[in-house]
Amino acid sequence: MKGGSKTSVIAGPGSAGLTDYRVYTLSRRQRLACLVVGGMALYMIGYVFFHSPLISLVLMCGTFALPKYWSRYLLRRRRESLSLHFKQALYSLSSSLAAGRSVENGFREAISDLRLLYPDGSNDLIAELGIICTRMEYGQPIEEALQDFSRRADMEDISNFADVFTTCKRSGGDLVEIVRRTSAVISEKLEISQEIGVMLAQKRFEAKAMLVAPLLFLMFMDLSSPDYMSPLHSGVGLIISAFALLLYAGSSWLILKISDIRI
Question: Where are the membrane-spanning stretches (predicted)?
Fold first, then answer.
């Protein structure tokens, strides 16, 4: 369910039509894929518990709530990628300024460096740096372009860099040293976040395995001992199966909530 995303835009002074990284709007292809895959998954779960096509179709009504959660997941991944690419761009900008290049050329060099790392060019930060360079060519101060980007990104690291850069540019401070120090601080923070993410990855995998295990067990019992499981698919057994499904749904929500640790 990766298809192309539909760009979320905001209106405002100097930012009309530009991407807003605080929201994520699914494209038609992504929404359709989410509904189809989610509907099939819910139907399968319903059939495993009840062996009733009618009840399984009723459970499929919950499919329409899935795009909201899928868009939240994609938004988080997009913001994580933006943060990582921003760190890489700061490395490039710091090196360019230390080599004696102007700020404008430093941003252009950052675009070239990111394109070397990501040849396909499908990178939000490459697009944003291109917008900043275009605005500079039209005579807009670079600090205004950075502040607009920081407002749309709404991320602490980018906002801090934009504020420090703006203050330094207007007060005539040591821009090279400021960028170098800011780059170092943000890089250390991101490296710690990545280390924590690696430690959490195993636990998240275990959580997903725990979610799938009950379904696999029920499928195994249905295949190996259908007569033993048949009382659960009619009469009072349907009530027991419904109660078991509610427990499974509640446990799944709790597991996902616990494993969804924001770094």
Answer: 32-50, 56-75, 209-229, 235-256
